[in-house]
Specification:
By secondary structure, the chain is of the alpha+beta class. It contains 2 helices and 3 strands. Strand 2 and strand 3 form a beta hairpin. The mean pLDDT is about 95.
Length: about 60
């Protein structure tokens, strides 16, 4: 949303908790850009690799 920080670090930390409870080493996180000035979704959607705070591998989709 407008004026808010990038939610990636909080999302990765939250996902870490879920993965830990499930005993998983990898996960997927989707972050939607809800800023009013964001580019059209087809232009801003990307896939990346990320690492959680507990060093888990995360497939990240930003849209």
């Amino acid at each position: 949303r407008d004026g808010e920080k990038d939610p990636l670090s909080k999302g990765l930390a939250q996902l870490d908790g879920y993965l830990d409870r499930l005993g998983l080493d990898t996960g997927v996180l989707v972050v939607f850009d809800r800023r009013s000035a964001a580019a059209p979704i087809e232009e801003r959607t990307v896939f990346e690799e990320a690492t959680s705070p507990a060093e888990r591998s995360v497939r990240l989709m930003r849209a």
